[in-house]
Amino acid sequence: MLSCKNLTVKVPNSEKPILENASVAFKPYAMNAVIGPSGCGKTTLLKAMLKIIDATGDSFFCGQKINSCNDIVGRVGFAPQFTQAQGKLTVRETILSTLDIALKDNSKKAERIEYILKITGLKAHENKLVESLSGGQLRRIGLGMELANNPPAMFCDEITTGLDPLSENAILDLLKDLCKNENKTFICIIHNLAKLDYFDLITVIYEGRAVFQGTLKELNEYFEIDTPLKLYDRLNEKPLEFWLNKQSLRGLCEFDAPEEIPQAVQKPSWAKQASVLLRRRISLFFRDTSYLLLTSAITFGFPLVVVIFALGGLPQIESLALDRNLGFIEELRANLALQIKAANVSTLVTGLILFQVVLLNLIASNNGAREIASERGLYEKERLLGLSPFAYCVSKFAFVSIIALFQSLWMCAFVKYACKFPGEFIEQAAILCAVGVSMTFVCLAFSALCNSPDKASLVSIYLVGFQLPLSGVVLALPDSLVWVCRPFINTYWGWSGYMSTMKDSKLYDAYVMTQSNFSELPSIWLVLLVLAIHSVLAMAAVYYGCQKRRHG
């Protein structure tokens, strides 16, 4: 059913491949074990066969060449060593969410979830949170998620490692029953050589090469040992070339492909998958108390900080917030005391607006930087179940947009009415919403492109930190850098757009009169256009990052 020919996997900056010319065939409808010393290439073999990682050579499913992992979606499962599931969901919710992503036919879901809960022995724990499960129960839920598609074949990567003997036996008994009663094929990486009697075919990997395939009895005879526990000592007695020469004389196993090629089940539309993911993400948001408290603190705390900095100047701001008139402009030019007062107030207001925008950018980094990177393993697992990268991206855009829009509107409303800023609320809200959403999308792009949430957070914080000096609002940029940096600086466009909403007020006139090198600020529509372009480019980067596979 599953086989490969001359698979080779190389890593950068290393001359020796971690897997070299591996040619193996696994027995269909049977228990297959893959064994070998740590670091010999066992997991690499499985991932290379499924095209999860890049490799030269060919792999086959039921005689058909596997060109990409999309070819085996729904037909071959992959259960990793560490279960990838959302800890704040219950067991039932986890399985149901997987079914909603994997199956189009709703009529089969109710029956399927009951079957999975029963066969994995999790029925009694269906209302427990995943984070409260034991190690053995976590391995069972990992298997249950893979069974959503009812695949005919499944790779299991060390799913019994670290379990107590009783739990290990229970997992292997479960696999054996599925193999016997439902004609499933299992390929299991296993470290406990005492459990090889569970398996019909054993493949030995040594130093990146396949050196043996056969039954347990044949293994003992081939390596001249009386127990498989002595296998690794025996392998180390001879160089790799010895075992390769011996294997070439004996040959590896070959099996006929099944006459009937299993077909993948129909998947839901991307819109359905996106809806499922969005509902799940919103539910997790409200269940994660620590993250909810942090988000609430910065959402409601940061606007309060802006107002606190404005308290001493609120009367003066209110006096300059009135509509402009020609008399005021002439008075401003003639009255030195009024000029000083206006300069102080305009400096305060421009600083507060800049502060708002910078804080919104900081909030945005919290919204987006860890959103994808922190669940990358789960996302890659669900892709093998049939999740569309486009659907995943849409769900993330929708979720972070909801958060960013609320935060931006609250920031705008609270600060505007507390500080009595002039200008139309609709225009100012549009500017700040565009700022919040665009920067959130940019940080989401870092999350999709970086290998870890910590790295994505660090890059996002650096970006926010450089916004202030590169905006040119506080410190003047050299003329040669102004239009090199400015198109990419979210803070400048947010600040200038907000200032432009005040053009019909005395406060704006005071700002203009106190600038020695005043240049006309961009229009509101230009600001919104630039921030929209930022958002679109960031969305493209998110999709690129999600489309490209990453592996732990």
Helix-strand layout with pairing:
Elements: E1 2-9, E2 19-26, E3 31-35, H1 42-49, E4 56-61, E5 64-65, E6 76-79, H2 91-102, H3 109-119, H4 135-146, E7 153-157, H5 165-182, E8 185-189, E9 201-206, E10 209-214, H6 216-222, H7 231-237, H8 240-250, H9 270-287, H10 289-310, H11 314-319, H12 326-334, H13 336-368, H14 376-384, H15 389-419, H16 425-449, H17 453-471, H18 479-485, H19 490-500, H20 506-513, H21 524-547
Parallel strand pairs: 3-8, 3-9, 6-7, 7-8
Antiparallel strand pairs: 1-2, 1-4, 4-5, 9-10
Helix pairs in contact: 2-3, 9-15, 10-13, 10-15, 12-13, 12-20, 13-15, 13-16, 13-17, 13-19, 13-20, 15-16, 15-21, 16-17, 16-19, 16-21, 17-19, 19-21
Structure report:
It is a single chain. The protein has 552 residues and is an alpha/beta fold. The chain has two domains: 2-75 and 151-250, P-loop containing nucleotide triphosphate hydrolases (Rossmann fold), CATH 3.40.50; 270-547, no CATH class. 56% of the residues lie in helices and 10% in strands. The protein contains 21 helices and ten strands. It has helices at 42-49, 91-102, 109-119, 135-146, 165-182, 216-222, 231-237, 240-250, 270-287, 289-310, 314-319, 326-334, 336-368, 376-384, 389-419, 425-449, 453-471, 479-485, 490-500, 506-513, 524-547; strands at residues 2-9, 19-26, 31-35, 56-61, 64-65, 76-79, 153-157, 185-189, 201-206, 209-214. The strands form two sheets. Strands 6-7-8-3-9-10 form a six-stranded mixed sheet, with helices on both faces. It has a four-stranded antiparallel sheet with strand order 2-1-4-5, with helices on one face. Strand 7 (153-157), helix 5 and strand 8 (185-189) form a beta-alpha-beta unit. Helix 9 (270-287) crosses helix 15 (389-419). The chain is elongated, with a radius of gyration of 31 Å. The mean pLDDT is 85.
